Amino acid sequence: MLSIIGSVLVGYDSSLMGSFNVMPSYVSYFNLTTSTKALSTAISYVGGSAISLISGPWTDWRGRREAIFWASLITLVGGVMQGAAQNMAMFLVGRLIVGFGMGLAQTATPTLLAETLPVQWRDFAMGLYYACWDVGTLLATGVCYGVSDMVLILAC
What pLDDT digit, counting tens, does each position of 138-152 carry? Predict the structure, then answer.
């Protein structure tokens, strides 16, 4: 489950912004320009890149499970901030915080899996971790455009 959940969340977040950026209600609510659309998408990757400088040593120091706990909590705080955003600055800060959490999770989760799973299951679990990004992408599409559209996309 850890393989699937960790990977699905990354794929979900990545696809979510692409879907949001073409929704007229989102664009008009925040009065977005091409630059602000790009910034709102890229800023989570900035957060993930920034935390990557310390996530490895911190995960080694505090442990993988604790790092996953903090990554989940950080991501949850960022998601709530995004959902409650009243202006573009609040939304961007939420996206940055989500990036911090996801960057930490992407360091701790595969490391925990690779170190704790029995050898005969390790390749399968790691394959699930890296393959389930697409599941998250499909879920985000389903949420943004409706389940009927997602079924149509899958049928094609």
Answer: 888 777 776 555 565
